[in-house]
Predict the structure.
Amino acid sequence: MRAYPLVILLLASSSFAAPEADAEKTYDLLVTPPASVKSGEKAALRIEIRPKAGAAAHVDEHAPLSAKMKASAGLHLVKAKFVHADAKATADKGAELAIAFEAVTAGAQEISGDVDFFVCTEQWCARQQKKITAAVLVK
């Protein structure tokens, strides 16, 4: 008789974990740097969390969202840490961050960082932690 509660508990916990395990299939994480930037110019790297069509997923406006960014020596980030209040909601219930920077030194540069956010449906919310890297060409 003691085996039944254990089996029920295992089945219940696995059924709750299954939708969250598929959370990555419900959105695209798009990282878009400018094509090129002239030395001394200001520009922005765009990070967008875009729900996939038909996925019924969204970035909840009340759930935490953060990004910690860093750049190679040839770029100066205007700001390195971002929170949900810095994000702009998109028409498709996603979120977008603009990582502003100034190009300092010509050549191949890089912006990288950690993005932490929640993708939700009506049944669940799943935390996503992603590392991103984008190349920026400074002329």
Observations:
- The two ends are 73 Å apart (CA to CA).
